[in-house]
């Protein structure tokens, strides 16, 4: 009986080893390496743990995808020009962006182009400061003006699009509503509305402080208008005198006129 029971135990151990060997061949290379270092008595338990850890890693890799960004350059190289332009008196550069070209771009492209221009401007300002420190002329300083013009035109294009969208949605031309109002000094100014807890037509204190002209200011308003008219007439007379002198000096201007 003892011999038969011992034979059955040996048969079961052989079958268990065969099952473990077959399952180990189906695992990945990482699991195979880990299983080779584990003692044979605890092979089955450790294999299940390794399988669960590998599956968790795979799920984490699928969920965390890499973010696509531009090339990362460590250091201060981004604030300086290309090495081949170092020591040059002139650097070739293109023309500034025109309004027509910017209007053909999408909002996403304008957003990317704005940061490219801003990066280029920071680089040029760094070069300008370094040239001042070394007391040498900056190579092609007109590049800064080109960048500034391009950014101003981009602001204009974005403002045009915002105005068109606002006119389509609300019918208002200005982003902030405003109106012509008379201030304390009697001048008619373009007043931009603000947000208050009380409407402006119910806020008596606000009306008194903003839209009330005292009686003693009226004579000064008349004197100010008189001064402006005299300055305008003096300027017109000066232009007429200059035109007369030019006609006396160049008689052919009379025939052309």
TrEMBL record:
Question: Does the record's keyword annotation contain Ribosomal protein?
Answer: yes
Keywords of the record, alphabetical order, are: Mitochondrion, Ribonucleoprotein, Ribosomal protein
Q: Where are the coiled-coil regions?
A: none
Q: Where in the cell is it found?
A: Mitochondrion
Q: Which GO terms describe its cellular component?
A: mitochondrial large ribosomal subunit
InterPro entries from the UniProt entry? MRP-L47_sf, Ribosomal_uL29_mit
Q: Name one Pfam family in it.
A: MRP-L47
GO biological process: what's one of them?
A: mitochondrial translation
Keyword Mitochondrion tagged: yes
Where it mainly occurs, coarsely classed, is mitochondrion
Molecular function GO terms recorded: structural constituent of ribosome
As for family, the record states: Belongs to the universal ribosomal protein uL29 family.
Spell out the protein name for this chain: Large ribosomal subunit protein uL29m
Source organism per entry reads Muraenolepis orangiensis (Patagonian moray cod)
List the top taxonomic levels of the source. Eukaryota, Metazoa, Chordata, Craniata, Vertebrata
């Amino acid at each position: 009986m003892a011999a038969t029971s011992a034979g059955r135990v040996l048969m079961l151990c052989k079958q268990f080893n065969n099952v473990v060997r077959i399952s180990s061949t189906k695992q990945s290379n990482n699991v195979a390496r880990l299983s080779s270092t584990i003692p044979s008595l605890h092979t089955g338990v450790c294999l299940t743990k390794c399988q669960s850890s590998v599956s968790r890693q795979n799920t984490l890799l699928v969920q965390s995808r890499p973010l696509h960004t531009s090339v990362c350059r460590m250091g201060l190289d981004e604030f300086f020009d290309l090495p081949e332009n170092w020591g040059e008196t002139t650097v070739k550069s293109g023309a500034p962006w025109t309004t027509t070209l910017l209007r053909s771009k999408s909002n996403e492209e304008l957003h990317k182009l704005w940061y490219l221009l801003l990066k280029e401007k920071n680089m040029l300002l760094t070069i300008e400061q370094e040239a001042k420190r070394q007391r040498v002329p900056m190579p092609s300083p007109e590049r800064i003006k080109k960048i500034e013009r391009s950014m101003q035109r981009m602001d204009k294009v974005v403002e045009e699009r915002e105005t068109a969208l606002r006119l389509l949605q609300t019918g208002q031309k200005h982003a902030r509503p405003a109106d012509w109002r008379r201030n304390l000094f009697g001048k008619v100014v373009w007043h931009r509305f603000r947000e208050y807890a009380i409407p402006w037509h119910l806020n008596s204190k606000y009306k008194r402080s903003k839209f009330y002209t005292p009686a003693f200011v009226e004579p000064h308003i008349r004197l100010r208008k008189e001064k402006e008219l005299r300055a305008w007439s003096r300027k017109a007379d000066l232009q007429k005198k200059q035109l007369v002198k030019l006609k006396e000096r160049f008689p052919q201007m009379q025939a052309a006129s």
